[in-house]
Amino acid sequence: MTSARTNPALLQVTRLRKDFPVRQGLQHGLFGHNAAAIRAVNDVSFDIARGETLGVVGESGCGKTTMGRAILRLIEPTSGSVVFDGIDVATLHGAALRSMRRKMQVVFQDPFSSLNPRMTVGAAVKEGMLIHHLAEGRAADHRVKTLFEEVGLNPDYASRYPHEFSGGQRQRIGVARALSVEPEMIVCDEPVSALDVSVQAQVINLLQDLQRDRGLTYLFIAHDLSVVRHIADRVAVMYLGRIVEIASADDLYSNPTMPYTQALLSAVPRPEPGRQTARIVLQGEPPSPANPPPGCVFYSRCQHPLKDDDCTRVVPPLEEKTPAHFAACIKQPSQLP
Amino acid sequence: MTDPLLSVSDLRTYFHDGGVVARAVDGVSFDVAAGETVAVVGESGSGKSVTALSILRLIRPPGRIETASSIKFQGRELLQLSDGEMRTIRGNRIAMIFQEPMSALNPVLTVGEQIAEVVRVHTDASRHDAWERAVEMLALTGISAPRERASEYPHQLSGGMRQRVMIAMALVLKPALLIADEPTTALDVTIQAQILELLQRLQEQLGMAVLLITHDLGVVAEVADRVVVMYGGEVVERATVTELFEAPQHPYTEGLMSAMPRLDRDTERLVTIPGVVPPSTAWPSGCRFRDRCSYAWDRCATEHPPLYSVGNEHESRCHLAVEPLRRSESHTPSTVRVGAGS
Predict the structure, then answer these.
(1) CA of A92, closest CA in chain B: separation in Å?
(2) Engineering a disulfide at A311: which of A66, A148, A204, A296 sits with its beta carbon 3.0 to 4.6 angstroms away?
(3) Is the CA virtual torsion B247, B41, B142, B132 positive or negative?
(4) pLDDT at site B335
(5) What is the pLDDT of residues B81-97, one digit of tens each?
């Protein structure tokens, strides 16, 4: 798992930004030039090695889903570059973009809403193969059956419709569909959060088996910190559109450096009754991304003992605090209270 | 021991659809003492939410609470009360909060009006006094500028704030029992921590009991005194929270605990429970978990297990209680004991 880091980067994201314009009143609409914007993803840079799993965690509205979509070019990034296997994704059009999409697939939280209710699940899995001319006729049907077996579904189910399946089975169908075009990377956006814990474990194990067997690379976006620790090699923490900490999973979970990461980890309820925890209970809620504060985005809720006005002056850069462990905080790391 | 605050016994809530009967809750019994927190844990389809709704008598046709079921609250049999009598208890002595506060709040009334309405329905407080109590309660839930917030509409508030409003509305009449159905499931983890802390503080201040319905074992470990594990419409294990986590007895509880990824350590591979929950229209004969259980033997198919006593205040609905040797005999690689993997 850890050896993946020595592989060359499959995906390189550099200074990625995505703004969403905010609709303003009539006056601004008619006369204003500087329309306000929600900066959903702000100056995000990272890379993922071939065969690696990068986990992205953060709370609602932190920009993790938008980031995933901008990388896939399901939405157009405002600026920055996304280089996949040496090719700048942002410059691609037409056939070249389609061929890139074959290599970079996505699995969503709710596969039901991305499956056509009137199409058999077999046809849904076959669709991508036909579009990309990977197989036709009998050969395509045969590949559908093989894929069903690979994701742990009875191949005879290919002729059924989406509503006939449980949540876990639908997610297996979603995975089969992503795999049908032989991708190199899969963006998994909350793939197990709608599932019960026993079924969640089945799907996580499936994703890990597929990675091992096919050498897949995952960008794994989730809010569940325990799931991400389990599946990811490295983890990035996002807050208000920025990556505030990134490190190997083991290092991040045992030595969280950025005060937000510390608070986030300490907030997770542990299955150990009577455990006396020094919990950091954050006050308030994140500021609005339409009007982000100057300096450190976490300043308003930060409980670092050394926090001061300096924090509001500069946007703290992602600095390498210890080898391969980056955090965006200008203060010396403080221990958990 | 004094009488419990709430005593649910042999509760059966069935849904009748044509000739088909869905036995969603099928013989559930447990008690809640004054002031304590009891967690009901289970996955989708276990019957935990229907249990909660049954206690409040919020089951609508084709659902029906079957005769011989009993729900005693403060010594009164709730299932014998008239609808009018039940209304004086619901929202007053027993309150409830849900997972999604937005769908439980009225979008066209300010949150202050909605809380005040609860007060006016159940007491003879004046409009002004009811409003004041609403503001007071909002303040108690840690909402800053409660007087201003009281005049706002639900859509103007964040998810965490709405859950605070729901809590204020549920607790404004100081109920003896709060039923909380997945109260933090829709919330971010830092907001969840705030809400759990708030619930515990208010529970102490008001001396109320909490019946917590949840699928999250982390939340259970943190707030519960006792735990009821449900599977297939039945209670499969009952224990104090410490006992349950230290020595789970039912294979389903065991499976749930090892299927959960851990924050504090990396497990090589998660243990899974094969298969899915069977539909409530066709529970298997004998033990309802046997199709997914790695210990199952012939007895499990023929004999429906009772809740065996397996320790002090600890019961498990599994024949392993009387044939403990089977635990080691049928041990297969897929059933790593809790705590063994690391």
Answers:
(1) 36
(2) A296
(3) negative
(4) 42
(5) 999 999 999 989 999 99
Angle formed at CA A132 by CA A130 and CA A137, multiple of 5 degrees: 25
Do the chains contact at B189 and A267, CB–CB below 8 Å? yes
CB contact under 8 A, B194 and A273: no
Question: Residue range B130-159: average pLDDT?
Answer: 91
Residue B146's pLDDT is what? 92
Q: Are B191 and B149 in contact (CB under 8 A)?
A: no
Q: Identify the pLDDT of residue A195.
A: 86
Amino acid at A315: V
Question: In the structure encoding, which two tokens stand for residue A224, read together?
Answer: 């569940």
Tell me if residue B331 falls in helix, strand or coil: coil
The letter for the amino acid at B192 is Q
Dist CA B143 CA B161 (whole Å): 7
CA–CA gap between residue B268 and residue B341 (Å, rounded):
8
Say how far apart CA A270 and CA B261 lie, in whole Å.
Answer: 11
Written as one letter, the residue type at A62 is C
Contacts of B157 (CB under 8 A, 6+ apart): B111, B149, B165
Q: Which residue has the tokens 């993922």?
A: A48
Mutate to test the interface with A, among B190, B265, B277 (most CBs of A within 10 A): B190
Q: Select the residue from A62, A170, A192, A197 to test the B interface by mutation, using most B Cβ atoms within 10 A.
A: A197
Type and span of the H or E element at B268: none
Cα A115 to Cα A135: distance, rounded to the nearest angstrom: 21
Q: Report CB contact under 8 Å: A197, B159.
A: no
- B30-47 confidence digits (pLDDT tens): 999 999 999 999 988 899
Say yes or no for a CB contact (<8 Å) between B263 and A226.
Answer: yes
Cβ within 8 Å, pair A264-B263: no
Q: What's the whole-number mean pLDDT along residues A108-127?
A: 89
Rounded to two decimals, the pTM is: 0.88
List the beta bridge partners of residue A242: A239
Is A198 close to B215, i.e. CB distance below 8 A?
no
Q: B272 at the A interface (CB within 8 A)?
A: yes
Residue-wise pLDDT tens digits, B234-289:
999 999 999 999 999 999 999 999 999 988 887 788 988 988 888 899 999 999 99
Ramachandran angles phi, psi of B228, nearest 5°: -120, 120
CB A238 within 8 A of CB A261: no
Q: How many CB pairs under 8 A join A and B?
A: 122
| Structure tokens that stand for A27 in this block | 């006056």
CB contact under 8 A, B43 and A168: no
Distance CA A266, CA A200 (A): 23
CA torsion sign, B10 to B16 to B19 to B23? negative
The answer to whether the beta carbons of residues A289 and A242 sit under 8 Å apart is no
How far does Cα B9 stand from its chain's mean position?
Answer: 16
Q: What is the pLDDT of residues A82-110, one digit of tens each?
A: 999 999 998 898 889 988 999 999 998 88
Query: Among candidates B98, B26, B10, which has minimal Cα distance to B280?
Result: B26
CB B260 to CB A226 under 8 A? yes
Kindly report the backbone phi and psi dihedral angles of residue A162, in degrees, each rounded to the nearest multiple of 5, phi listed first. Answer: -50, -35
Minimal-distance CA residue of chain B relative to A196: B43
Each residue's pLDDT tens digit, A6-19: 667 999 999 999 99
B116 and B74 in contact (C-beta within 8 Å)?
no
Distance CA A54, CA A213 (A): 18
Consecutive H or E run containing A177: helix A167-179
Residue in chain A nearest B276 by alpha carbon: A199
Q: How far is A1 from chain B (nearest CA, A)?
A: 11
